[in-house]
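Troubleshooting: if your tokenizer reports a length mismatch, compare your output against this known-good record of 287 residues.
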Amino acid sequence: MIASGRPTTRRDASATALGAAIMRAVHQVVDGEPKIVDDPISPLFINAEELRELQYDPDVFLTPVACAMRVAVLAASRFAEDRLAEAYRRGVTQAVILGAGFDSFAYRQPGFARNLKIIELDHPSLQRAKRERLATADVHVPANVEFIGIDLDRVSLSEGLRSSTFVWNEPAFFIWLGLMPYVREAAIVAALRLIATRPRGTEIVFSFARPTGASDDPKVEAARAWLSRFEPGALAKLLHMVGFSEVTFLNEDHVARYLGQREDELRPLRRVNVGSGIVGTQSNGAT
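Known-good structure output:
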């Protein structure tokens, strides 16, 4: 199983997914330049009343905690998308987004991504909600996007992929953001081991939670439901153990580069809980 014993309800999962979309939307309408992720789609996931709140009552989004949460979400997305571009350059042509939620990458694809197969794996009810919002916003679903609706609490990653057009004997890029803390360690190991057995050049980008007191992550309420926490060193050891040849973690310098020179309230984070693992090849590090 990808997940085991996750205590959140499906409504909670939907709210969490929409919350990440709201943070990406806030970045587009409240924050200055440069954008960490240029995302015209996320605001379209938000209904008119929600969007008005973003535009006319921005102060709630400018507190230090809100800004830190936004930077964390956006930096993770930027890191994943930059790594995916690098993976494409080395020949990867399929991407799997685990627990895709309201992720918008597939609907604002850069030029290279049009040559990718993009598989979004998520719970059927959340996928229906996403597709309804896409239709309401008149956002076209590109032909290279495939929806696989499965409950990853009950169905293994292997079963989910076998129900899709995923090509097992070709390298792939996996994005696993926002979910690992809700997954028990044994299930994380199983998922990582499966991905690590894919062909050379396969990569996963993931976010994780650190042990209590060791993280700058501001999501205090969410932390109560977390089932797994890792120190980066222990997580790197785990990734190497299951078969990844190179492990990289996003750091403050990379986030500062994403932020650039700006005049708004966004600031680099001291710790960003995002990393990547590559199978059987060397990369140029974080992009």
